[in-house]
Amino acid sequence: MTALPPQPLSPLDGRYRAAVTELGEHLSEAGLNRARVQVEVEWLIFLTDRSMFGSSPLDEAQRDALRSLVRDFGQQEIDELAALEATTRHDVKAVEYLVRSRLSALGLDAIAELTHFACTSEDINNLSYALTVSAAVRGVWLPKYRGVIEKISTRAVEFRDDAMLARTHGQPATPTTMGRELAVTAHRLTRIATQIDGTEYLGKFSGATGTFSAHVVADPAADWPALSKEFVEGLGLTWNPLTTQIESHDWQAELYARVSHANRVLHNLATDVWTYISMGYFRQIPQAGATGSSTMPHKINPIRFENAEANLELSSALLDSLAATLVTSRLQRDLTDSTTQRNIGVALGHSLLALDNLSRGLGEIDLDRAALATDLDGNWEVLGEAIQTVIRAEVVAGRSSISDPYAMLKELTRGKRIGHADLTEFVDRLDIGDEAKSRLLALTPASYVGVASDLVDYLP
User: Start and end of every Adenylosuccinate lyase PurB C-terminal domain (predicted)?
Assistant: First the structure.
């Protein structure tokens, strides 16, 4: 058998690449290396700006030339770094050598030794991950996530007045509206979006064991913690003053736990919409050219929601693992986080793919109001809650002497199907005030929704 040409192993880099390609800009190996170059270049400029060790500030042309290495980072640099790493067997050292080669080309050999000055690899790595993850979450994942919230909210407003039978424990229950149910999900997701948006992206820059030891030996008079803080904050990150060799990854654990939480709420949405489709509450809108089944031509399968469900599970499994493992590092440093963090893009990629499917799926369904009305009309027994509650109020007001209204309605309705005529006859015989009786006689399952429609207004 002839071997296949090289193929992507992950479906995120194959079948689903179009849906997740934006993440690769930040969370690929190339994206990580570009961020490493950025940190190395900015540290060099930072030191020369302060004339450390007799250096002089670079002029604007020199600064721009160095920063262009980040701005124009592309295939040439990717290939060059691969060649360097093949020799160094060390990814960050390869980045250092790349920067040094550019300094030489610019005639800046005099400051070459300030490249990677007093840094451990993890000083570069932790800042690079903070920069890339921040850019990926804020620039790619969150906008897509908010787009799904917006679609849910739009449909919530559209269906705000559409009464439907609730099904607590899968059984007929007090009616609600489809809009209110969707608004609940949008509200939950919005809260999590706020939490994710408020994530602190921490960074350390303090040497081999976080003590600034090499820095102090090189220049005992400098306030290295203050310089470190200024540098880290200048990159748009939050400085972490107390670390070992690594930044402790707590911010990552917090972020991934929140994204995983969002995934699970979205998973709940996917399974609920799937169920509403199977019940006939939602109709699926045929898509031109699409095939539902290879043998049953009538079928339109809810594949958007099924695909989302599966990818949300994969994403949360990876994110949960990242959150659990990254917070532990043996003594002052072990290397387990190095390979683990390379899967951040995969974890967020499965979530992004799910968001893409949910966004499409929500636009490919419509409400079958006739199906909702038929279901409501077949379950008049759900008004038992309303009747026994009104009787209780009438007893307290002195307009009824009925004892144990709940037991009375339980006897009438539990495990039974009763219709409009049955309830009308029952209410007519009740010992309650005329106004209360009129209210109950006018009630239908479709009108027994409280203020469900008004609650949609609490959406932001």
Answer: 329-449
